[in-house]
Specification:
The protein is α/β, with parallel strands linked by helices. It has helices at about 15-30, 40-50, 70-75, 80-90, 100-110, 150-165, 185-200, 225-245, 255-275, 300-315, 315-325, and strands at about 1-5, 30-40, 55, 95, 120-130, 135-140, 175, 205, 220, 280-285, 290. Helix 3 (about 70-75) packs across helix 5, helix 4 runs parallel beside helix 5 (about 100-110) and helix 6 crosses helix 7 (about 185-200).
Length: about 325
């Protein structure tokens, strides 16, 4: 039985929303156990009513406004810190948290620990594309600046994740750039291209921004600065389009009817772009799966994130990453 530790504190939502997500995950997966980290008054009553849930009472919470590294060092009994500690101690096989991104990255990196030989962990998320195609995208903000050899590791980690999460073997890897030609890009992009072309990582050439939601590549890599800008641009575009469509409802009766008919599809598209269908982003390169959900997460996203962490454990994601990178798990 796989055990996932779920941090139900520190997000923008009331802990009850996250607790509901844990309940959904337990119902969906009969071979799942959840260690629930949070305030005693929140986690203990819930766990008393569920056979496969165990409480991890915590007295502290790291808020979105706190400095992540300082808070992780200072608040030893914070839910996200205790969750990472439970994974490191072997009490859980992986974790999910919708708390502060910086706190999850810090607690995960130093609490769970990196796979030996992995230089930098990276945040990754599968994006929907043409037809049923999905593209694994990383890094989405964990590392603003990386060296060319780190980009090769990103590609290798992304390929391992594509195999476990999407069932794609021998994934085609693209480098996010401002043109498909190998001569395009800044000096750093050219250095990335050279390293990827020489590395054993399935490199298939440069990818443009439009390829993230396309079907030309199975994995697209970028440094965390570029990746985060691209991610926020996609999210912003989605919100803009949905906002304009909602505003047009009042323009005519036909518009209102048309949008009503499209409501389900639009909701599905929004969830895919936000990562809710996968529960959030996964931090690749650690000794155990760590899934980071949105601060404004939903119960469904918590459920999906918990199940995603369990799938990563069962699929030996960390072992595959270690072998792909020539590292030690």
């Amino acid at each position: 039985m796989v055990t996932i530790c779920v941090d139900v504190m520190g997000s923008d939502k009331d802990p009850s929303e996250l607790i509901e997500g844990v309940a959904q995950a337990l119902e969906a997966d009969g071979d799942l156990k959840v260690l629930v980290a949070g305030a005693p008054g929140v986690v203990e009553p819930f766990c008393a009513q569920h056979d496969r849930a165990e409480a991890l009472p915590c007295t502290e919470v790291i808020t979105m406004s706190e400095h992540p590294a300082n808070a992780v060092r200072r608040k030893k009994d914070a839910s996200v810190v205790r969750a990472a500690g439970a994974v490191r101690a072997g009490d859980a096989d992986g974790m999910f948290s919708a708390g502060s991104t910086g706190a999850v990255l810090t607690a995960g990196t130093f609490g769970v620990g990196r796979i030996k030989g992995i230089k930098r962990p990276a945040l990754s998320l599968p994006f929907p594309g043409k037809g049923d195609h999905m593209t694994v995208f990383l890094d989405m903000g964990a590392n603003a600046d990386v060296k060319p050899e780190v980009m090769v590791q990103f590609a290798q980690m992304g390929r391992a994740y594509a195999e476990v999460a999407l069932g794609v073997k021998d994934a085609r890897v693209g480098l996010l750039c401002n043109g498909s030609e190998e001569t395009k890009g800044s000096e750093m992009a050219l250095a990335y291209h050279e390293a990827l072309a020489a590395g054993d990582c399935g490199f298939a050439g440069n990818a443009e921004g439009t390829d993230i939601l396309g079907d030309s590549f199975d994995v697209i890599v970028a440094d965390g600065f570029t990746g985060n800008v691209a991610l926020k641009s996609i999210e912003g575009t989605g919100k803009f389009v949905l906002g304009r469509l909602k505003a047009s409802m009042g323009e005519s009766f036909l518009n209102k009817v048309g949008l009503a008919l499209l409501k389900k599809s639009l909701k599905s598209m929004s969830a895919e772009l936000s990562g809710d269908e996968y529960g959030g982003a996964i931090l690749l390169g650690l000794k155990a799966p760590v899934v980071k959900g949105h601060g404004s997460t939903s119960a469904r996203a918590v459920c999906q994130g918990t199940l995603a962490a369990a799938r990563a454990v069962r699929g030996d994601l960390c072992g595959k990453i270690a072998r792909a990178c020539g590292a030690d798990a």
